[in-house]
Design brief:
With 281 residues, this protein is of the alpha+beta class. The protein has one domain: Clavaminate synthase-like (Double-stranded beta-helix, 4-Layer Sandwich). Helices cover 23% and strands 27% of the residues. It has seven helices and 19 strands. It has helices at residues 27-39, 51-59, 136-141, 145-151, 160-167, 173-178, 213-227; strands at 4-6, 13-15, 41-44, 81-84, 87-88, 91-92, 95-96, 101-104, 116-123, 131-135, 155-158, 182-185, 187-189, 196-198, 205-208, 233-236, 243-247, 251-255, 265-271. The strands form five sheets. The protein has an eight-stranded mixed sheet, covered by helices on one side. It has a four-stranded antiparallel sheet with strand order 8-18-10-16. The longest helix is centred in the C-terminal third of the chain and has 15 residues, at 213-227. It is globular and about 50 Å long. It binds N-oxalylglycine and manganese (II) ion. N-oxalylglycine binds at residues 83, 96, 101, 106, 117, 119, 131, 253, 255, 266, 268. Manganese (II) ion (MN) is lined by residues 104, 106, 253.
């Protein structure tokens, strides 16, 4: 129904001639849902929409998560998280500033982790700040059979704390209490496609539960190298008006640093799974 253009050999598609602010509904949303599940990442270029339209469109795909970092939420629309290095009145308006952000799944540390994120470019630096995505279904499929057998049924520990120490600023005590470490299956069954994806990431996964520490560290090192091989990765160079919607159950992402003298503001909504498909998975 919509014309598409592939973004890489493995995954990702640009949806042509589509405006989020036209408030698509019914068949249009069903079509987008299908394309989202098929391609794992959708790019909408040349968008002209405001925060209300971003929230309205995102809601068509599920309930929206209010991020634990309340200090970085949009004042008007708490469903929107600001990702930014901009300072106003002596405080950062958004999270993740201008440094490199390591590979992660959004909210992998929640008991019912988000299944999607929609990120809209509001203000961009002239260069830098590209965002890379990795196809974790393709990465799982290509693993040697004996590695799959070893990993099936295993749990990994996911830590927001580890991510914050490496790439972000500490949470306060209330936020810490809302985001303790958690265990999730390493081979995640996708709630829509039923495909398996490697559900771990260098930024937040600290160990394989119950394994000898050295074996766990060796396996994670192998998997982190494996999942970020060029054939599984799409690197997105942002243009003004871009909105990218990714499948957060089977892709992880990272961001390049950029020159702190330039401002960058991205606005993100986070889509929760339907309750009957939330967890376990
Ligand atoms: C995010 C994120 C990367 C970026 O919004 O979840 O990781 O490009 N953003 O700023
Ligand atoms: Mn993220």
């Amino acid at each position: 129904m919509y014309a598409t253009r592939p973004l890489s050999v493995s995954f990702g598609a640009e949806i042509l001639d589509f405006q989020l602010s036209d408030a698509p509904a019914g068949e249009d949303i069903i079509a987008i849902r299908k394309l989202w599940a098929e391609h794992k990442l959708l790019l909408f270029r040349n968008q002209s929409f405001d925060e209300a339209a971003l929230v309205g469109f995102s809601r068509k795909f599920g309930d929206l998560e209010i991020h634990v970092r309340e200090e970085y939420l949009s004042p008007e629309h708490p469903e929107i998280l600001y990702v930014s290095n901009i300072e106003r009145d002596g405080r950062h308006i958004g999270i993740l500033s201008d440094n490199e952000v390591g590979w992660h799944y959004d909210q992998i540390y929640l008991p019912k982790p988000a299944v999607g994120s929609l990120l809209m470019a509001d203000t961009l630096p002239p260069e830098g700040g590209n965002t890379e995505f990795a196809d974790m279904c393709a990465a799982w499929d290509a693993l040697p059979e004996q590695t799959k057998t070893k990993l099936n049924g295993c749990l990994a520990n996911q830590s927001y704390e580890a991510f914050n120490q490496a790439y972000s600023v500490p949470t306060n005590n209330k936020q810490k209490a809302r985001s303790p470490d958690i265990h999730h299956p390493i081979a995640r069954i996708h709630p829509v496609t039923g495909r398996k994806a490697l559900y771990l990431c260098p930024g937040m996964t600290t160990e394989i539960v119950g394994w000898d520490p050295q074996e766990s560290a060796d396996m994670l090192e192998f998997l982190f190298d494996w999942t970020t091989r060029p054939e599984f990765v799409y690197s997105h160079h942002w243009q003004p008006g871009d909105a990218v919607m990714w499948d957060n159950a089977c892709t992880m992402h990272r961001r390049d640093p950029f020159d702190p003298r330039h401002e960058r503001l991205m606005k993100r909504t986070t889509i929760l799974p339907p309750p009957h498909r939330a967890a376990p998975f």
